[in-house]
Specification:
Order of helices and strands: EEEEHEEEHH
Number of strands: 7
Helix content: 10-25%
Structural class: alpha+beta
Radius of gyration: 19 Å
Distance between the termini: 58 Å
Length: 137
């Protein structure tokens, strides 16, 4: 007996803090120097969800079938904008690790520090684990 393979509409899981969503939403992901994503809800679905705290961890995974091991993370970051009633109604905005840098307050002095040392300090203060500095050609 053959098994049907679903190739045109992958399954998804969106994790926003402790909340896991597998239906009832649409999402958009942009990958680039500053990656971001938007998760959109219908007004009825939004009312059924608990509040999602800003800066909560967020992940979007895509895959086929019921096998969670076969899914792949296509976005990882944090919640940066909550529901609104304005132009972005019923939408939650997500940003990648650059959000950590944007929201970290740096109060150190950098006399006689190299640019690389300054960047390493700022990244460390933001709690970013993965980083690679490269020298210009």
């Amino acid at each position: 007996m053959s098994r049907a393979i679903k190739l045109f509409s992958p399954d998804y899981e969106i994790a926003l803090g402790d909340i896991r969503l597998t239906q009832g939403v649409t999402f958009e992901v942009h990958q680039g120097a500053r990656s971001w994503a938007k998760v959109r809800f219908t007004p009825r679905y939004k009312a059924a969800l608990p509040a999602i705290a800003l800066r909560s961890p967020a992940t979007i995974r895509l895959g086929y079938g019921d096998d969670a091991a076969g899914s792949a993370a296509v976005f990882s970051g944090m919640v940066m904008t909550a529901y609104s009633d304005g132009a972005a109604a019923n939408e939650i905005g997500l940003l990648d690790a650059s959000a950590e840098l944007a929201t970290t307050k740096i109060t150190a002095n950098f006399r006689q520090a190299t640019p690389a040392e300054i960047v390493r300090h700022c990244v460390s203060q933001a709690g970013i684990q993965e980083m690679a500095l490269t020298s210009p050609p």
